[in-house]
Write a structure and sequence with these properties.
This protein has about 300 residues and is an alpha/beta fold. The chain has one domain: 3-Layer(aba) Sandwich (Pyruvate Kinase, Chain: A, domain 1), CATH 3.40.1380. Helix content is about 60%, strand content about 15%. The protein contains five helices and seven strands; from the N terminus they run H-E-H-E-H-E-H-E-E-E-E-H. It has a five-stranded mixed sheet with strand order 3-2-1-4-5, sandwiched between helices. A two-stranded antiparallel sheet has the order 6-7. A hairpin with a 2-residue loop joins strand 6 and strand 7. The radius of gyration is 28 Å and the shape is elongated. About 5% of the residues have low confidence.
């Protein structure tokens, strides 16, 4: 049995760990609230841009097919895979489940004789893919705690350029979709071509409103020119929204993990307190026995 001093030192260590995990839980909770507010503020803008883009594409008709971002490549051989992870760990399975999903998709593509092209956001994804010998065509780190629109624009620019130049035939993005502080869902979405994009979800028919048919739209300049401007914005806002969802999911996962760690530390402290009491009792019993034995030897 460990001595009282050893058990007391272990209790002090676990109490220090518990203080750290509680502080990290509180920080993650505050950051989660800010991330939720940013998602809520972005949603109306993203929905409006989605409606404008789809309406312009519909009105442009056959002319829209000339735009490279709307055109699917005939032979999809090189598939870009963007993994959205975090710069830091201590968030449960947040990073590992994204990496596993990405590697699984890469293996499926290779089995189909297609080539996965790897991109990663967040140090955890970059380091994990590099460790596994994957060559990264794009790595983006240093902003996962609070991504800005410029970060989404930079990633979108690289992916868009690669798609237009023919270095990528399709782009898939894998990230943690935010459901609640306790639930994060691994989400795989198609980013490019936009004609098959699913990252901003499906919408109902945009030509009607709850009050009746919507007024016809007159375009100046032509719908095709407006669409040419809207498409890059559509990709940027799609990526930015995925980054925000991932950030909220990261803080939620870390908050949950730190709460669990604090509770586990509390249970260990209780167990060690019982062990220390048993050790104290054993020492007292030993001292009593030594006193009794000494008294008997004097008789």
């Amino acid at each position: 049995m460990a001595s009282q001093r050893e058990v007391k030192n272990r209790i002090a260590s676990f109490k220090n760990i518990q203080k750290i995990t509680r502080a990290m839980e509180a920080v993650s909770a505050a950051r989660l609230r800010r991330a939720e507010q940013r998602i809520a503020a972005l949603r109306p803008y993203a929905d409006a841009l989605r409606r404008m883009t789809r309406q312009a594409a519909k009105d442009a008709g056959a002319e829209a097919s000339r735009l490279p971002l709307l055109t699917a490549h005939a032979d999809e051989q090189r598939i870009g895979i963007l993994l959205v992870t975090a710069d830091r760990g201590l968030a449960g399975a947040f990073n590992s489940q994204i990496i596993r999903a990405g590697l699984r998709l890469g293996a499926e593509l290779e089995a189909e004789q297609r080539t996965p092209v790897w991109y990663a956001s967040g140090r955890r994804g970059v380091s994990s893919l590099s460790f596994r010998g994957k060559t990264l065509d794009g790595s983006y780190t240093g902003f996962t705690d609070r991504p800005s629109y410029a970060d989404g624009r930079r990633i979108a620019g690289d992916l868009t350029t690669a798609y237009i130049d023919g270095r990528l035939d399709r782009v898939e993005i894998i990230y943690n979709g935010y459901v609640s502080a306790l639930t994060q869902r691994v989400t795989r979405e198609t980013l490019l071509p936009i004609s098959e994009a699913t990252i901003l979800g499906e919408v109902a028919d945009e030509t009607e409103t709850p009050d009746g048919p919507r007024a016809l739209v007159d375009y100046e300049p032509e719908a095709e020119e407006i669409l040419r401007v809207l498409l890059p914005d559509y990709i940027e806002i799609s990526l930015y929204r995925a980054l925000l969802e991932s950030t909220a999911s990261e803080h939620g996962a870390r908050m949950t993990a730190m709460r669990s760690a604090s509770e586990n530390a509390g249970e260990l402290i209780e167990d060690l307190a019982l062990e220390m009491n048993r050790a104290r009792q054993a020492e007292i019993t030993q001292e009593i026995m030594e006193v009794v034995a000494g008294a008997e030897s004097l008789v």
